[in-house]
Amino acid sequence: MDLSTKELPNFDRLDGTDGTILGRYNKVNSVNPHKCRFVATYPGGAEIKGIDLFTTGWAQIPNGLSKLRYELSTGHIIEIPKFKAYLPMIEVSFGMDGSKVFHYINVNCLADKEVIVYKIVLRQDQLLPQKIGDVIMSRKLVSTERNSSWKYTS
Amino acid sequence: MAEPELIFAFSHDSAGDTPWGFNGGNEEDPNKNGFMEITPTTDLVVFTGGGILGSLPTPTTISGHRDATIRPAVTSYTIPQTYVEKDQMYICQHTGYNNNRYAMAVYIKGHMTSDLYLEAWDDNTFSTTNLEILTGTPNSGGDSLINAIRTTYSEPPWHPGWDGTDDGAAFLRGVEHRVGLNNTSTITDSIVYYNIYIRLQTDCSTFHVTPVLGFRYLYT
Fold first, then answer.
1. Where do the domains of chain A lie?
2. CB-CB under 8 Å, A149 with B214
């Protein structure tokens, strides 16, 4: 089965702005992952826009960007400050019933001696205080493992 | 990059506990070497057996066939049979309270920037763990009743049986109690394996529940 078919069978409602998943004990509101993307700005003002949360398009953009922001389907725009490099990681759950929920975009930002993580919230419910568009900041050590998906700034 | 593709399978091979041998080729059939593919949107993993009928027929039985299992009176009890329900029900030959390694499998086609985590939730909101099978009971020590273990690189421990306390194992419940199936920070074009069973306690209620097994991962 190709899970990249972009189907969301567990969503009870989905429109251009957001969607709803009804559970036994909770109700989850989610961004529309088809309509969330990154926007990379390059010197001179040129922009390259990502596709969606399924096929991000991150691998295709060149190094040398000057700004990075995320546009969510809900209208939230999250501007990421300038760092030496960026590596976004999308956190998703896939269920054995074919369901799918996108939780966060973890934007790893390379600083001089550490990695700053901007965790962008993509779903909210009736239990957690986090709301769509919130950004949760954290820090971690620079990994010694090489990852070719880092995109360096100009 | 894009989201990696996951291909699920279970061993239906009565001959032995042997690897899947699937390489993820575009034209390659996942139904090979005794393994059968699990199609998440249509197939159902069913834990059953041990009740009035003793056990259900193997290697297959008719779709919809269930056997009321036991609420044990004296000691805990492992639900003895696991099936995958398709057009009919196919026995998972190697899952359970045993030391089999190649019971359930996932092929990761593409690249993950994390481990692949096996989790259990109430439903497909992936947000609550209130079902008794996940909360456990006083006799389970408050642990979930679902035992799962990573068997990607070795068979489960045998002393004489494994449970959620073993290395690479968990009593599945949400993100706090889950199993990293490869125990690495990235995975690319690989097979991971796990084993799983449900142990009922004497103080369980009599339930029929449908929790969701979920797989959480990161990608770029």
1. 3-152
2. no
